[in-house]
Specification:
Elements lengths: L6 E5 L19 E4 L7 H20 L4 H10 L4 H22 L1 H4 L6 H21 L2 H35 L4 H21 L4 H11 L5 H25 L5 H21 L5 H24 L1
Antiparallel strand pairs: 1-2
Length: about 300
């Protein structure tokens, strides 16, 4: 087991340790759950805090902070499944705060907001529960492909939304068909968001286009609010399942607050497109790293 950790309970099927590269007790046919209060080294803590600052700043300018936060947790030794849950918890307060900031815009979407929030809660819960049911070794094998999917969505998201808008303009449909299609697609996005989540915001914007929305500020408000709903239910499930690395989550959260504040001012001086290109480069590099790590 990891140094300084104590075993809380044993059940189910045994998987990898809470932190990689540490000794573990193998109990055939048993899942071992570790104490979440395992503190990182000073070097790892600095890296995690710095990644929180970077992720918070990037999210404030162009989005895509997960491409920095999640790989950093894995690089510092947190197992991928726990890193995924920890990252969700770390970014959750910022998402909720952003939702409050958009409260004026949300008044214009009172008709669809309750439905989309309900879908977000249900889909997010399904995704989070699916994550808990995924064996660690299988999730580790999925990570390169999930990162590839998220990177592709991030890079080509604008083109996807532009093409989708052009298609919908040439092939008009009744509002009932639009509603049914968008709610079905949003359920799929919410499940993905509860399970992994990177690139979820871009996919949500595409769904809102299917719904027939064109006002970008209202769409952004809904994107952030729906994402906050998905993350909220996922956080509750992850906390109850005790798979959150709390020291790492708190360190990253504090870094995210600093980065978010700094990024809000930076967004007035730095081109969002320049930041997007930087995130693309990081996303491609980390995706390649995960493939090498998994298959080498």
């Amino acid at each position: 087991r990891p140094c300084g950790a104590r075993i809380l309970r044993v059940s189910g099927a045994c998987e990898t340790p809470f932190l990689e590269g540490t000794a573990q007790i193998i109990v055939p046919g048993a899942r071992i759950q570790y104490d979440a209060l395992m503190f990182p080294s000073l070097t790892d803590a600095i890296l995690i805090f710095a990644s929180g600052i970077a992720a918070g700043a990037i999210n404030a300018v162009a989005g895509g902070g997960t491409f920095i936060a999640f790989p950093t947790l894995v690089f510092t030794g947190v197992s991928p499944l726990v890193a995924n849950a920890t990252c969700t918890v770390a970014v959750w307060p910022a998402a909720v705060a952003s939702t409050y900031a958009y409260r004026v815009q949300l008044k214009e979407s009172r008709k669809i907001l309750p439905v989309m929030l309900s879908i977000g809660f249900i889909g997010g819960a399904i995704g989070a529960m699916l994550l808990l049911r995924t064996p660690e070794k299988h999730f580790s094998a999925l990570i390169p492909w999930l990162m590839l999917l998220a990177t592709t969505v991030f890079i080509f998201g604008k083109n996807l939304n532009r093409a989708l808008g052009h298609f919908l303009g040439e092939h008009p449909a009744s509002q009932r068909v639009r509603n049914l299609s968008s709610y079905t697609l949003q359920m799929a996005v919410a499940i993905y968001g509860g399970y992994f989540g990177a690139g979820m915001g871009i996919l949500t914007l595409a769904v809102l286009q299917v719904l027939g929305m064109t006002h970008i500020h209202l769409m952004n408000a809904l994107k952030i609010t729906i994402g906050a709903a998905i993350n909220t239910i996922a956080v509750v499930i992850f906390v109850l399942a005790e798979i959150v690395a709390w020291p790492q989550a708190i360190i990253m959260l504090l870094g995210g607050i600093v980065g978010g504040y700094w990024g809000a001012h930076l967004s007035l001086k730095v081109s969002p497109e320049l930041v997007r290109r930087l995130v693309m480069l990081i996303a491609i590099s980390t995706t390649i790293w995960f493939f090498i790590k998994e298959y080498s």
